[in-house]
Amino acid sequence: MSLHPTPIPAIPAETVRIARAAFPQGNIYMQLKDEPGSVYEDKAFAHLFPQRGQPAAAPWQLALITLMQYMEGLADRQAADAVRSRIDWKYALSLELTDPGFDHSVLSEFRSRLVAGSAEELLLDVLLEKCKDRKWVKAKGRQRTDSTHVLGWARVINWLVCVGETMRAALNTLAVVAPEWLQKNSSSEWVERYGKRVEDFWLPESKDKREEYARQIGMDGHHLLSAIYESDAAEWLGHIPAVDTLRQVWLQQYSVESNQVYWRSEKEGLPTATHLISSPYDSQVRYAKKHTTVWLGYKVHLTETCDEDLPNLITNEPATCLSIGSATTVAPVHDTDVVVPIHTALKTKDLLPLTLGPMMRSIRSTC
Q: How far is 270 from 250, CA to CA, in rounded Å?
């Protein structure tokens, strides 16, 4: 897809007439077009597209559609249908009433292009510049930061199920990428033990039997890892993600003494919640609790303006990153730990809020 930036066309006269008849007072999307004007322009996205190839859909329209579908919580198919059917959306996008729209997959491709070009913050930054031009947001104003939970794509399981599923995931992966090696280095008992998903309801009921079952899984995993890291094994086996997850989980959940594997207890010490792997299918989700909310996943931190005479506007981008220093973190990260990174990012945008002392105390400037 190539891009040759073109000026944004005026809203077609017939679209204006019908939209004004349907919405005499306007609505949020018509106001979005009328008040700040065209928020996005093609030239802002030119660096993400090649100069040759089939012409791409207008990036300024895709950016605005992305914004509007977020406002309503629409899936890509629903957003594409809204472009085809809704008068107010056609008004905001400067489209003829007869415009057939586009295939919904274009929106996913546009987001992928933003991520590939490290331009995830472009949509927010451009919008904030428009708001600064209209004096809707200002530096040294009042801002507040809070967080909410983001659920991971993994079911909540206990630690015994976690180690069992970790072992099963590693075996399933090896069965695909190295079937002959696995056949030589596995036990026939593993087929029955890990052939189906490990579920809590069919695990042994008594504590002693559960500990015995945990040790058995530990010995199986230890045997598999020892075989993988043997000198005559292919080096690439140890770099398989499922195998590396198995290695990390076994380091966290088991201890080895005299070639015997023991289930770690809390007394012996476990990693902190920030580092403890909770699912083999998403090694980055973590358990966390905030007030009465308990979840498995991540935490997103959002900052918004809160001056009484101005609209409330989000000023920081919840980037898709799992380290402290971004607005999206692993779930157990405390809210105060992201204040400094968020303020550092706001400083680059000339939107740093009013502070009352050292940066670590800047959370006091919130509303």
A: 11
Contacts 24+ apart (CB under 8 A), 322-328: 322/284, 322/298, 327/300, 327/301, 327/302, 327/303, 328/150, 328/298, 328/299, 328/300, 328/301
Which residues face 143 on adjacent strands?
A: 305
Tens-digit pLDDT profile for residues 154-212: 776 788 899 999 999 999 999 999 999 999 999 989 999 999 988 877 788 888 888 89
Instruction: Taking each helix axis as running N to C, give the angle between helix 159-177 and helix 241-253, from 0 to 180 degrees, rounded to the nearest 10.
Output: 150
User: Which two tokens mark 324?
Assistant: 């402290």
**What does the pLDDT look like over 2-47, one tens digit per residue?**
777 788 889 999 999 999 999 999 999 999 898 877 788 888 888 8
The residues that bridge with 260 in the sheet, in sequence order, are 257
Separation of CA 291 from chain center: 23
Pairing relationship of beta strands 293-305 and 328-330 according to DSSP bridges: antiparallel
Q: What is the pLDDT of residues 211-246, one digit of tens each?
A: 898 999 999 999 999 999 886 778 899 999 999 999
Read off the tokens for 91: 């008004």
| Cβ atoms < 10 Å from Cβ of 278 | 24
Determine the Cα–Cα distance for residues 305 and 160; give it in Å rounded to an integer.
Answer: 45
Average pLDDT, the chain: 85
